[in-house]
Amino acid sequence: MTELTAILPATPAAEPQTLPLKRRLARAERVRKLKYGALILPLALFLLLSFVWPIAALLKRSIDNPEVLGALPATSAALNRWDGKALPDDAVFAALAADFAAAKGTPALAAAASRLNMEQPGFRSLVLRSARNMPPEAGQSAREALVAADARWGELASWQLIARNASPYTARHLLAALDREYDENGRIVHVGDDQAVYVNVMLRTFGMSFVVTVICLLAGFPLAYLMATLPARQANLLLIFVLLPFWTSTLVRVAAWIVLLQTEGLVNQALRGLGLIDHPLQLAFNSTGVYIAMVHILLPFMILPLYSVMKGISPTYMRAALSLGCPPFRSFWRVYFPQALPGVTAGCLLVFIICMGYYITPALLGSPSEQMASYFVAFYTNQTINWGMAAALSAILFAATLLLYMVYARLAGSQGMAARAR
Hints:
Layout: H1 2-7, H2 15-18, H3 21-61, H4 66-71, H5 73-79, H6 90-103, H7 107-119, H8 123-132, H9 142-149, H10 156-164, H11 172-177, E1 180-182, E2 188-190, H12 198-229, H13 232-243, H14 250-261, H15 266-273, H16 287-310, H17 316-323, H18 328-356, H19 360-365, H20 373-382, H21 387-421
Antiparallel strand pairs: 1-2
InterPro entries: MetI-like, MetI-like_sf
Protein name: ABC transporter permease
Domain ABC transmembrane type-1: 202-408
């Protein structure tokens, strides 16, 4: 009773007689949860403002489409009621003429014209030239004035293009990131072979990430196993060597690999000095150099999860299997490896996700055919200032990351259930 009284909140003297014990315990639990929530709130706000909100804002850019709606508000509202099967009525022509007259010479109209020009080349000059001729002359209707300024206003495709972009959101950038586009009828079609780029880029990104992950696993698993089975002093020494690359900048390490792998670099000179080759090997500025540098940079991210799991595996399991007559390799595969599988999945997930977003190493050590999706994200962000395409490519990488994490969570859950069943 004394312990129970100690955990209950202070209450007036009459309260123990009026409130049941169950309600008082529930109130104490709520107070405790509120205190914990108050302690976590600063960290939650920090993550929301510095992590969640920027990512959400960037992903929203992939579907944002404010240019046409901002420059042509009356036309956008009128086209929302248009069926798109025939030329719009005179009210829509009048709304477009009024919007042109109001926005003529403004940056908003130029932005809308550039946005429409991305889908149909030549549309920027059409919009700007037509806007200069607005408002219509006395006695001239808006339809006549627009068609006189440019005959394309009498074509259905021009109005369908504006109607497709008269909403605040569009899937155009996401479709372009998948080598798809809208045709003149608003249907989703595949782009021409000369414009199909991004599907191959994504396949290259996933393929290179997979190869790097496999090489890191094959190289890191034996080293992690050795570290887990060595005495503590020797294992700590190896751990220091694994962590040592983290003390050097990634850019510096990539530059060092350029010096080592170039035609007259140290590697080619050593091979020629040993008589193994007659002419220099092309090791840099191709896929070979990219794979070598990326494996070197990402190998610690594979070793550390493996080592943390293997360190907790008792060696008695292997000794018991061997003492019962099981061959060494079969004992390792049937007894040891299933227990190390959480480290394998965690290391592979970590390396694969980091590799998908790598930019510096392929940009410096690779040729144009080795550039990954992150290169195009940087290109659209820094050079063409096309935030929509940069956000669309980022959204695809983000979706792939979430999918991988869901697969990892499912595998980890099934492994945990299997462990509890044993």
